[in-house]
Design goal:
- Residues 4-113 form the SET domain.
- GO terms for molecular function: histone H3K37 methyltransferase activity.
- The strands form 2 sheets. The protein has a 5-stranded antiparallel sheet. The chain has a 4-stranded mixed sheet with strand order 1-2-9-6, with no helix packed on it.
- Strand 1 (6-10) and strand 2 form a beta hairpin.
- By secondary structure, the protein is mainly beta.
- It has 1 helix and 9 strands; from the N terminus they run βββαββββββ.
C-alpha cells in the first residue's frame, strides 16, 4: 500500500526522493511494502553492486538483506527524519510512518540508523 499523495521526484544532489502532494498528519502510515529477503550469501553478492545503497539489513541477526518494493528504497536519509520505518520479519514487510506533520511538497525522509533522531554516522 502506497498512499496516493506520495510521489518520487528529483531531490537535489541526492538523486530521487519521496515527496507528498498534500499535508500529512503525524503518526500516519504512508506506505506498507513487501520486501524480497536475501540470504546472507545473496546479500554479499548484492553488496558488490549499486543495489547495496538500497537494501536493508534484515532479520534478528541482521545478516540477511532485504530489498523493499514500492517507494521504500527511495526515501533519503536525514538524521532528524520526519518518518520512521518498522520491519516485520514474519510478514516480510516494511512500514513507513510519519513522526511529525509533513507539509505539502515536503520530502519524506528516514534515518538509515532505524530511529528518526539517531545521530550515529551512516556508512556512506
Amino acid at each position: 500500500m502506497i498512499q496516493p499523495f506520495l510521489t518520487v521526484a528529483p531531490s537535489g544532489n541526492r538523486g530521487r526522493g519521496v515527496f507528498t502532494t498534500e499535508d500529512i498528519a503525524a503518526n500516519t502510515i504512508v506506505e506498507m511494502a513487501p520486501v524480497l529477503v536475501l540470504s546472507k550469501k545473496e546479500r554479499q553478492v548484492v553488496e558488490q553492486t549499486k543495489l547495496n545503497r538500497y537494501i536493508f539489513e534484515w532479520g534478528v541477526s541482521k545478516t540477511k538483506g532485504a530489498l523493499a518494493l514500492g517507494f521504500v528504497s527511495m526515501y533519503n536519509h536525514e538524521y532528524n527524519a520526519n518518518c520512521e520505518y518498522e520491519m516485520d520479519y514474519a510478514h516480510e514487510l516494511i512500514t513507513i510512518r510519519t513522526v511529525r506533520q509533513i507539509k505539502k511538497g515536503e520530502e519524506l525522509s528516514i534515518n538509515y540508523n532505524a530511529h528518526p533522531d539517531d545521530p550515529t554516522e551512516v556508512w556512506f
